[in-house]
Amino acid sequence: MASGGLQLLGFVLAFLGWIGIIISTAMPQWKMASYAGDNIVTAQALYEGLWMSCAMQSTGQIQCKVYDSLLKLESSLQATRALMVAAILLGLVAVFVSVIGMKCMKCMEDDQVKKMRMAVFGGVIFITAGLAALVATSWYGNRVARAFYDPFTPVNTRFEFGSALFIGWAAASLAMLGGSFLCCSCPRRETSYPPSRGYPKNAPSTGKDYV
């Protein structure tokens, strides 16, 4: 029962992490404009994400523009996109594989060893998805930090970390933690011992053996 509870907890955490990865990928707030200095801007907030850039005016109106061409984007942004999409697809596969291996499901009840191995395999895929998302968000954040501290970057074009990055880091951590819990349900090998040999019992004495 304890392993079943740990398995369920791992699946819930990993599933929440996968949902967070999807949300982080879709959000445009991967980096937000830093209004450091004395520059005057007309927009209240400027955001840039993996798919579009947005500007929120002081009136509350939000205007977003999708990036025109994939070929015009930086190679680092394209790589970040690819890693996040790969993390989402891996998480989708991990969800189906882990569900089959859950003890509370009826699938593969006749072979518990294979069922537990499916759960472990799903956990490994969740960990891989979390690593992909972690690499993508950390790589993007490193680029934002380097550009911010670069003295040649104009003050009015400097950006800070957006909320999507923090969600991505938290989601990647949940996916890896949940996958690790699923891997803890790995079946242990049971050591088989040879059957003990019985010793012949002495026949009960009838009391007629003495003279």
Please tag this protein with its features.
211 residues; alpha+beta; Butyryl-CoA Dehydrogenase, subunit A, domain 3; 5-stranded antiparallel β-sheet; PMP22/EMP/MP20/Claudin; transmembrane helix; transmembrane; Claudin_CS
Description:
There is one protein chain. By secondary structure, the protein is of the alpha+beta class. It is 53% helix and 11% strand. It has a five-stranded antiparallel β-sheet. The radius of gyration is 29 Å and the shape is elongated. Belongs to the claudin family. Keywords: Cell junction, Cell membrane, Membrane, Tight junction, Transmembrane, Transmembrane helix. It is found in: Cell junction, Tight junction; Cell membrane.
Summarize the structure.
This protein has helices spanning 2-26, 75-101, 112-149, 163-183; strands at 31-33, 43-48, 52-57, 62-66, 159-161. It has 211 residues and is of the alpha+beta class.
Major β-sheet profile? 5 strands, antiparallel
Computed Rg: 29 Å
* Rough outline: elongated
- The neighbouring-strand order within the major sheet is 4-3-2-1-5
* Tally of contiguous helical segments: 4
Question: What's the CATH topology name of the domain at 4-27 and 75-184?
Answer: Butyryl-CoA Dehydrogenase, subunit A, domain 3
Beta-strand percent range: 5-15%
Structural class of the helix and strand makeup? alpha+beta
What share of the residues lie within helices? 40-55%
Intertermini distance: 65 Å
Supply the CATH architecture of the domain at 4-27 and 75-184.
Up-down Bundle
The helix/strand order is HEEEEHHEH
**What's the count of strands?**
5
Stretches where pLDDT is under 50 for at least 5 consecutive residues are none
